[in-house]
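Revision sheet: structure tokens.
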Amino acid sequence: MPEYKKGNGKTEIKGVCVWFCETGLDAVWAFQDNNYITRDSMGQEQWSYEGLHVLEEGDYLTIYHPADPDEIVWEGLISKTEPLIDKPGSANALNHPQNIGISLEKWNRFFFRRYPAVLTPKSSSKK
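Predicted:
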């Protein structure tokens, strides 16, 4: 069973931000749970779909700087906003960077470079 940390009655999941895209599907802003990232015998990362969480309206995300695990670079509630037309992640139209006070370049960096993060899913319940 995955190891979760409880905070304020909600489940907090440690992992990384990821821009997820698969052939034939729209690209989405997502989160990969650390408990579902393993290494094979060659040292290559293996990610399980079980640990993939497509960000949804109402999720709360805290993103940390990769070089300083105590430095929060962004945190907030995920909400649907204007779509990012012709930009990565446009299909699910989550958190238009202009509406949350950061540039598209910075927002992309968090997900393309897989910044560490903590996700509190909207659907989490008290355990």
